[in-house]
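Archive transcription. Copying these from loose printouts into the bound notebook so they stop getting lost. Printout 1 of 2:
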Amino acid sequence: MERRRTWLRLSLALNVVLLAVPLYLFTIRGLDLDTALSQYVTEHRAQSALGRFADYDFAAETNVKHGDGPKHGANVNDIQEVIAEAEKTEAAPPPPPPAPKAPRSCHVCDAGETGKALCEKWGRDAMTRGIMYSGTNHRLRRALAKMRRGEPWSMGVLGGSVSTGHGLRDPTGEVLSEFNMHRILFDHLNATFPSAKGSILHSVRASGEAGPNDGHNTFINGAVPARGSDYFAYCSHLHVPEDADLVILENAINDPLHITMIETFELLLRSMLERDHTAVLVFNVFAFKFDNIAMGGDLNGGTTSYYDTPVLSSRNAMLPYMFEHPDTVADWFATMNHRLDKNKDTLDNVDIRHFGRPLHKVSGEMMVAYIDSQLCEMDELEEAEGTTDVDKLYPKDPLPPQRLMDKYAHGTHAPKLTPFCASTSSERHPLAPIENEGWYEWSSSPEKKYLVSKTPGSRVKFKFSTTQGKLILYYLSSKDFGLGNVKCWVDDQENNNALSIVLKGYWTNPYNTGSTKQIWNIPPGDHTLTCRLLEETDDPSGGQEFRFMSIMSI
């Protein structure tokens, strides 16, 4: 009972206060009671549950009337009605603003599951180092946008024996092996952007050319052992189709560490980018077979940035780990002649020129992680801009009008390359003599085909044409194969030093690969090239064999 009395007293006090304020406004400030009540309720209504309860309690248990004031004769019930009406009509406070969207990281370590796993295993720093140059990625994103639209697409590869999968030891074949780093990338893209008609795998060397995709997603491995950018700069069209959407260039170790390779790599890259919509991703592999850790790929950083072309490097990513754990080097590389007794200490029977499956896996997954990072950035950009218009978001940037290795010439444009190429690796454009005395076709393996002679005095003649007056002869160089010399000349100019040249198959480098020599200032038009195997040789053992692979011209 005492508690009830206390509560009633408190309620009475609160209601007296509630009445006092509007009465003050009514009697002192001269407002009519309705206005006074409305102003008070709107601006100063009690917010607590206790106040609302006290209003109710007081109105229910007392009957206070206003005796001599307002003309409307308002009482406590009037006050309660005004308060209730105000509570109905007063707008609710606005909701708090939504929390800002957390920025999404599109780093290669964060954008996709493959990158996350790579970085968890090898470290974020390693994968960051693996990106040598990124740039705008406009061409790559245009290709990815096509894949997203559900259109069939194709991916090609130009490279040497690492790209052919030499050393993978896959009984189903190495060029198209699922363990090949390029297949790892293709399989990821094909799973992400499948075609209703499925996919097709091509080895260009098997057929001499890449076939049409016919609505399929298509993989074309156009790599050839012992070939570098000095070959592909003129013969790439024989190995990947003109309409390829994405081409991977892998020439880092097949290009010698020589300044001339800067020019040939530029010609190769530019010839790819002269195609209407082909995107290029350069992937630099590495090897320990040579005199330097650095190879021709290290000369091309300026060229790739000049042409805004992304570059990845497995060496940059993984070599620090190998330095820290030298006992693992043998595990990363292939075995010599498929032997299993690799010596981790001396590297005996370790093929330190060719990747084993672990390096193929890391390399392929690096490319996957990079592609995923680009897809992530496309998502962010398209959401921010509110459009998926590729021409607006990823404009088709024009090629630089002049070549990087040419002297600046104001207002001029470098001519488009229209190379001639006849190759032992092509059935469509074979290296076919028009006259032949003592030369024959021979291959040391299915992928290594040559036009060979071992008899001094043997002659062979070819047709070729040129628009810019440059002829390039491509042949094998080795210190181990007993190779000799040939003399070649244009038309009937055997004794004209400007239009003749001696090619030497022997060299002292510890690897066997293609070499080029050039004849310049040939008049534009159709010509012949004649070559004769010489008695003289530079080979210490007296070897006189010679192996042609291609003749090319622009």
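Printout 2 of 2:
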Amino acid sequence: MLATASAVAETIVKGRVIDASTDAPVIGAEVELLRAAEVLAVGDSDNSGRFLLSFAFETTPEQRALRLRVKRAGYATGSAKVIVTAGRPDRDAYDVTMLPDALARCVSGDPYLVTVGRFFDPPSGANVVQLSGYLARALSLHLAPELQKKHLPDGLQLTFVECTGASPHSLAHLANYARALGAQVFIAGDVIETGARYTVRTYFGDPYGVFGPDTSVVNRDVDIADPAAVALDADTYAHMLVALTHRYVENGRHAECVDICVAAEQLIQELSPGQPTPKIISDQREFCAARTENARLLP
């Protein structure tokens, strides 16, 4: 007796291709659907970033694992997992995010990453593209080693990365950049004045969207000629340190949040002696302390 062939039916996988940093559609991307190395269907994303792939596939009840692979010049390859059962995909539509090459170079995989993006030149036209590197090095020199001396949750160790290719043109995209780069906080900004020293406005984005697009700090008299001499405003340090607590709050780990806030208060007193504790830290400390039974951590 001849073996009965598996029944097949038309299966449709659709979705859209999105720029991870801006949520804008990626137009003209090549979209492939693969089972292992076998290409089942190929298509392109249209002017709205949407794609639709139609192919014949067996309707057996077993789950089949497939993969979308998306390519386009200027972007790192994107992918998404697709599970098909009885000829039906597990989602109505799939969003595939693509990371621009300029950002992909900055992804390090460090769990506590602070990424310093582009600072825009002042109206005078002076080129300050090097400012990102100076600030990243200054923060590594000033902040990271002193923070490690404090009582912190296990494994919390800051890494600062320069990424001049991270150049947001809208403050609304700061959280997107943080998520795309895998950063706990993303910093960018502009130079308001120049001279022997700089007045620098820093903007902050975090992957949880806690910081709004108008969250910023003005740092006056910033000397970028020597990273060892760079001194930023206490509020700039405070925003970076509070951003570290957002992951713990999201996971209900409020005691660790209190630990970080206490360490941040101590550190800022050392870096900016005589300045009051920035309100963003004291507010976050109170918020987390109210949600933990570990009140003994408060002095």
